[in-house]
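ok so i was messing around last nite and threw this chain in just to see what happens. nothing serious, just curious
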Amino acid sequence: MQQQIRYRVGWNEHKGSYEIRHFRPRVIGWLGMKPDSADWFILLKQIPSFAFQARNGGHFTAHKETRARGGAYWIAYRHSGGLLVKTYIGSQARITIARLEEIADEMERRTGPQA
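result:
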């Protein structure tokens, strides 16, 4: 059974900013923290995954994985045309909105109609 994503980072058009939502299994609230803040990086240490929806509509699910060399790394996953596409995001310190948007754009190019 696929694990349900409990955190979603997405663009809020009305607020003109990204926000972090917590689901359990329905929306139970918006977290008061902002991505790229100290609280955001603390949250990343505690959670195994989150969904990301970019301002331009690109999206993916990010999962934390442990590598043989040690340390945790984040990987972006997205299904497209029956295939699972994956892209390395980086270590926790690299999980900024700018990096997430970059990955969403890359995933859009790789899975778009012309791909």
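not much to say yet. The CA atoms of residues 35 and 106 lie 20 Å apart.
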